[in-house]
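[SOLVED] Predicted holo structure with adenosine-5'-triphosphate

Edit: marking solved, answer below. Original request kept for reference. I posted the sequence and ligand SMILES and asked for the 3D complex as structure tokens.
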Amino acid sequence: MMMRRDRLFLVATLTAIFSADLYFILLPKLESVRHGPGRWCSCRPDNFTIPRLGGLTTPQLSNRTSLQPVDNIMTEPVTEGSKLEKLFAHPLYNIQTPGLTPEERLLEAKQLMEYYKRKASRWERHMKLYSEAAAASNITVSKHKVTFDSDANWLKFHLGINRYALYSRDDPAIGKLLRDMQNMTVIGADYTQDEKALKGACDCTQVVKPSGHHLKLALKMQNYAKAMFKPMRQQRDEETPEDVFYFVDFQRHNAEVAAFHLDRILDFCRVPPVAGRLVNVTGEVLHVTYNDDLRAVFFVSPANNTCFFAKCLYVCKTEYAVCGSPHLLEGSMAAYLPSLSIAPRISIPNPWIRSYTFTRKEEWEVNPFFCDNVKQLYPYNSGNRLLNIIDMSIFDFLTSNMDRHHYEIFTKFGDEGFLLHLDNARGFGKHSKDEMSILAPLSQCCMIKRSTLLRLQLLARPEYRLSDVMRESLQRDLLQPILTEPHLLALDRRLQKVMRVVQRCVRRLGEDKVVTKDFARYTAKPQAATKTIKVR
Ligand SMILES: Nc1ncnc2c1ncn2[C@@H]1O[C@H](COP(=O)(O)OP(=O)(O)OP(=O)(O)O)[C@@H](O)[C@H]1O
Ligand SMILES: [Mn+2]
């Protein structure tokens, strides 16, 4: 059964790829017949041509070019209407996954409801005890009504997580969850689990967490939805100065929001939903926290604004604080993933990890053949884990996030599970610089999933231009504009650079070696029937 589904999925992918070929190759050809020679001419000798799918079981696609020459694609006519809607209506974005087996879903509804009930009753108990204690010591704590809602959007998000993605773009619960995070009453605020474990300390040999720089909170909403709140630290138009190391750079709330939108536009769906919110730090944090440590870091600034700084054992510098104006503060709200107690995840060091010190270099930075070593190592020696790392590096290059020290996967899905793209707050720091080293997994391994490449090609075309679809997508956020124009335009420039890296690899190694079939593990199996697959 499991194998049949995998085969169906493979066929679905191939059908979509075939549709894309039709779209890119046949239609342009027909057009060129209609309009006479020259209009779609892609006959320059150095044209990059989209590779044929290799392998025994895959249909022979056209071996003619389907990638526009990178330097003339921007001059084609632009069509009217919503580019984003058109992008999402494209066959490449409508690969329908076959029905999921229980093993392919992260959670069972019954298990999740039991967890939710336990959580709700624990919360009510704590609230009662805490309110009594707070009244006795004259502390202001707002009491809000909590609602147990078995139809809550966050539950639907959790139930939708499966071995292929965190959510489906068509799932109406995701849009509703974004709205919940934007305006639902906050009933509780606390430090996040990892902050609690850290207890404000920092390891001074590693500068990953310079005391006071990390500032994030877990906010609980009226229906028990939980979000990770990262407050605004930097204005949208401020660029990270040249001399600032990436690991002491600010965390940017707008980068978290933008990364969610970009991940969805790339059709990865590996970033949890993130929405921007104006948070009242007095009413929605200070007055709803039951944590004395958190309350203790609040103060009122000389300008009469409510501020708070990160937990810190040694020095609590007010320069590190964030302040409301006088109470309202922008921030990102990232939907929480299911608790580790019901959906364990593991955190794995990125093979292309950077040194978090001022001087040391990692092996990948000095050894151009580093990827050959990685390819020998489990779990990068089989399946598509390495291809997933390469997807992640493309994503990080586009946002210019150098802080991908670890990645997480759900243990339930094992080695074939997708990689979670958590923590994107260090992206979008400099729009004028493209950090090519972030692409090292792609440039050193010279491999890319065909489905990823096809989508990148689409986003390089004027009718789906990445900056345009991003601008449109981000306009839906309450805190729009999320990215300044230079950051949006940098996306187009970086996309071209990704394509050029792929072109170079293809010239060096040939298409069949570089552009890899997705779901490589299953290619030796004969094909299943296509009739159950719907591709719009
Ligand atoms: N949406 C989420 N739901 C649940 N847990 C999350 C979510 N996002 C992040 N986490 C967990 O919290 C940890 C810290 O989050 P994040 O990396 O965003 O913050 P950080 O302050 O940059 O921490 P670090 O320095 O460890 O990277 C993550 O490693 C992850 O395990
Ligand atoms: Mn981080």
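OP edit: Residues 104 and 168 are 14 Å apart (CA to CA). Thanks to everyone who chimed in.
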